[in-house]
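REQUEST ID: PR-0412
SUBMITTED BY: lab tech R.K.
PRIORITY: routine
TASK: structure prediction, single protein chain
INPUT:
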Amino acid sequence: MNIRTIVVNGILAAVYIAVTMLIQPFGFTNVQFRMSEMLNHLIVFNKKYFFGIVLGVFFANLFFSPMVAYDLIFGVGQSVIALLITIFSMRYVKNVWARMAVNTLVFTFTMFLIAWELKLAFDLPFLFTWLTTATGEFVVMAVGAPIMYAVNLRVRLDKLMEA
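STATUS: complete
OUTPUT:
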């Protein structure tokens, strides 16, 4: 990794943490609208954003989660798994909009891990919790897709990591 990649990932992690802090009450319950999750779409522009996203999730969960131990395992794990699936799918999906659609569906589906976490931590009903967390994730990712696309048109997220 070059210095530029490290710095951009550090800034990305800080932005993720700051946005999560702003919406803290809505990011850690069985109905989650964690707006910082829209940053997951950065992965479709360049897989080098992986570390910034994962570090952002890790530190946001470390600092703000009411169930730190669970969230460091399940929350970070869900992000890693979903990001890796999206990175793998990018070999076959070339269109940016299609990649964002795949990314949205992958993150929405893998919310079963968060539902499982909430079942273990608070004995919430698994299927209903999966439905509510997946719905929140889908809304955030669907709203975030055109926003991240527009940001890319201005900032060129796909070229930002290249020196």
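NOTES: The two ends are 11 Å apart (CA to CA).
REVIEWED BY: pending
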